[in-house]
Amino acid sequence: MNYQSLIEKAYEAMNYSYSPYSNFKVGAALLTKSGKVYTGCNVESASLGATNCAERTAIYKAISEGEREFSAVAIVSSSHDLTFPCGICRQVIVEFGKDIDIIVAKDYDYEVYKIDDLLPRSFTQIDLK
Ligand code: THU
Predict the structure, then answer these.
(1) Is the confidence at residue 40, as pLDDT, over 90?
(2) CATH code, domain with 118
């Protein structure tokens, strides 16, 4: 799947955003190495702290269906700017590998990063050995 199509899927997921507190809609589309796509949106809570980001929604959906290997994740939002994954999402992304392309997009423009760009010197399972 090309990245523009993955970005479109992230925009479709963004429509489902449940964000009555921030009014900041986020959508994500996660591409598995086998070519499947799992989408997610942010889901807020009145407690605020229980909010789940779009990226983690997509990753948790995929993991809970048996997927472990990912090649890319596209992230879009209702902002006028590119939206980069928050710190917690960066930590969750690195859990599943350092070669995932992290695509941050706004309409037809996008930039691609690796997790080492966004979360350098990360703490991972290697550190637990
Ligand atoms: N949000 C995401 O969904 N992903 C991010 O990486 C950044 C933040 C959401 C969480 C919350 O619902 C809203 O954006 C404002 O922080």
Answers:
(1) yes
(2) 3.40.140.10
Residues carrying an active site annotation: 55
Best residue among 11, 24, 81 to mutate for probing ligand 1, ranked by most atoms within 8 Å of CB: 24
pTM above 0.85, yes or no: yes
Q: What is the mean pLDDT of the chain?
A: 98
Whether 6 shows a pLDDT value over 90: the answer reads yes
- Structural domain of 122: 3-128
- What is the strand order of the sheet 26-32 is part of? 37-41, 26-32, 70-77, 101-106, 109-113
Give me the residue label for tokens 């710190």: 87
Rounded CA separation 58/43 (Å) = 11
Considering its fold, how many domains does the chain have in total? 1
- For ligand 1, residues with CB inside 6 Å are 19, 22, 24, 26, 42, 44, 51, 53-55, 83, 85-86, 89
In contact, 52 and 43? CB cutoff 8 Å: yes
pLDDT given at position 26:
98
Q: For atom 7 of ligand 1, which residue has the closest CA? A: 86
